[in-house]
Specification:
This protein has helices at residues 19-32, 56-70, 82-85, 87-90, 93-98; strands at 74-75, 104-108, 114-118. β2 and β3 form a beta hairpin. A three-stranded antiparallel β-sheet has the order 1-3-2. It has five helices and three strands, in the order ααβαααββ. The chain is of the alpha+beta class and 123 residues long.
Length: 123
């Protein structure tokens, strides 16, 4: 007799629909990072969550180095939120990496983009 209510297909039960697309947008943006041309999305979600850092150069270098150290000093780099956090002052990720040959070396990786190596020892 009367087995509890529900089992609906999500219609009306989860009204937080905006949260899911925002999470997907973050995932998609992070997974595709580095292209530079497709940025621009994000609409009205920027605000306090993705404010540019006070010292964008140092913060960008720290994040990139941390990713490379995790990969043994060479690998793919994807900085989440680059467009919102760093691009206004540093340009695209590739442009920034190219301005820092003292820290990073770029390597072509065919059609899939590029990989990055730490230049010299840890600095």
């Amino acid at each position: 007799s009367g087995g509890g209510g529900g089992g609906g297909k999500g219609k009306g039960a989860s009204r937080g629909g905006a949260a899911q697309p925002a999470a997907l947008a973050l995932t998609n943006g992070g997974a595709q990072g580095g292209k530079g041309k497709d940025g621009g999305g994000g609409g009205g979600r920027g605000g306090a969550a993705m404010q540019p850092p006070k010292d964008p150069v140092s913060d960008a270098i720290k994040e990139i180095k941390a990713q490379l150290w995790e990969q043994g000093g060479h690998g793919k780099v994807r900085v989440e939120g680059w467009q919102q956090r760093f691009a206004p002052s540093l340009g695209s990720l590739v442009e920034f990496l190219e301005t820092r040959p003292d820290k990073f070396t770029l390597h072509a990786a065919g059609r899939s983009g590029f990989t990055v190596s730490l230049t010299g020892g840890p600095q």
